[in-house]
Amino acid sequence: MDGDGDTAAGAAGAARDVPEGARERRGPRAPWIVGVSGASGTPYAAAVLRALLAAGESVDLVVSRAARLTLLDETGAAVRDAHWREDLARWLARGADGRPDAFAPGPDLAAVRYWPAGDLAAGPSSGSYPARGMLIVPASTACVAGVALGLSKDLLQRAASVTLKERRPLVVAVRETPLSGQTLRQLTALADAGAVVLPASPAFYAGGTTAQDLVDFVAGRVLDAAGVPHRLYRRWTGELGGASSDAGGAGPAEG
């Protein structure tokens, strides 16, 4: 596969500038693996991808077969193995409100490597492949079950299993409601195995007023769990009412 360079530019827009603390990547390439499953919520994945690239991180992208259908349904965008770069550029330029040029020009994709979901011989299928960890955004209940049971039916599930066995960070942004008892038990199993279970639950204390604000909050929490710096949402500073003023911070912490 091509596109495995280490250079990445920030996402477009003043609110999406390169965050403080973003590192200049040197030495062997060690990407974050981003898995996109078939759950509704593909704008979450786009926001995470843009922010990772803005932070100077390398990315290995795996899009499941079901996710391609969801992406087509939610955005009208396709992801084709032979044309993934141009398809990904169109996807990342689209905002959560459906505007096709909300983030135009989009991020530089030189730091992205794409792996077809059916390629079980791909780099991320092996524990010896250097990776920083994996973010599954969004994670469907079927994906959760497959990873919890160690099925490895496709590259997304296999890469997640490898991430767990190698004790690397795994963030699972589950997007489903309501949750059945079976799924709750599987999520508990993933948490016990070391994964961070992060429901895609937008919060309102950060002062979000648009769909993109709410999407960015969830994406920001995913990156917080991974330890990646970003500027996707206003953080809580200990001052009530901050969400309604330009000078304030995010609202009360969850808990």
UniProtKB/TrEMBL annotation:
| Source organism superkingdom | Bacteria
- The enzyme's main class, written as a single word, is transferase
Which Pfam families does this chain map to? Flavoprotein (PF02441)
Residue ranges annotated for the Flavoprotein domain, each copy included: 32-225
Where is FMN annotated to bind? 38-40, 64, 175
Kindly give the InterPro entries that the UniProt entry links to this protein: Flavin_trans-like, Flavoprotein, UbiX-like
Q: Name the catalysed reactions.
A: dimethylallyl phosphate + FMNH2 = prenylated FMNH2 + phosphate
Entry EC number(s): 2.5.1.129
Protein keywords: Flavoprotein, FMN, Lyase, Prenyltransferase, Transferase
Listed binding positions for dimethylallyl phosphate are 205, 221
Named from the GO MF annotations, one term is: flavin prenyltransferase activity
Q: Quote the biased-composition stretches of kind Low complexity, using this chain's numbering.
A: 1-16
Q: Where is the composition biased (Basic and acidic residues)?
A: 17-26
Ranges for the region named Disordered are 1-26
Give the protein family: Belongs to the UbiX/PAD1 family.
Say what the protein does: Flavin prenyltransferase that catalyzes the synthesis of the prenylated FMN cofactor (prenyl-FMN) for 4-hydroxy-3-polyprenylbenzoic acid decarboxylase UbiD. The prenyltransferase is metal-independent and links a dimethylallyl moiety from dimethylallyl monophosphate (DMAP) to the flavin N5 and C6 atoms of FMN.
Name this polypeptide is given: Flavin prenyltransferase UbiX
Origin organism of this chain?
Actinacidiphila reveromycinica
Query: By which gene is this protein encoded?
Result: ubiX
